Amino acid sequence: MKKTGSINSIYVRLVGIVIFYVLLSSSIPKNNFRLIENVLNINDTVLFIPNVNEGWNTLSKYLTIRTDSVVFDIILERNVAENHNWNNALLIGDVGEDFKPDRERVISYIESPRVWQINFLPSGKCILKLLSGEPPQGSYIVLPIQTRYKQ
User: Is-above-0.85 flag for pTM?
Assistant: First the structure.
């Protein structure tokens, strides 16, 4: 009889643990699942799509939603040898539907001696423009972008 009581006790604990995990997982906000998707690179294209037609490639990215704002941290690269007037607006990519800003957001990125402007449009388009300084030289440009904006 002692073994039956012990087995019942284990069964009750196991059922309690399962119920606890079910309740816990149902209470996790959907935003945390987006973060998990990004960390695991699951469904990657819903976060940010680089403009590969213009030579942009993603080296690293972290996008998540915190309350009512988007945390945007991405590192892009591009072959500089391709002809481009860096003073003209250049589409570097698109943010996914869930990460689009509510209105145009403009940030400046200082890469001494260059100053870049990056526009995040409500359509999801990300536009880059060289505001001052010499255009990039060499074979590749690496551009880290960090910002936080309201949705």
Answer: no
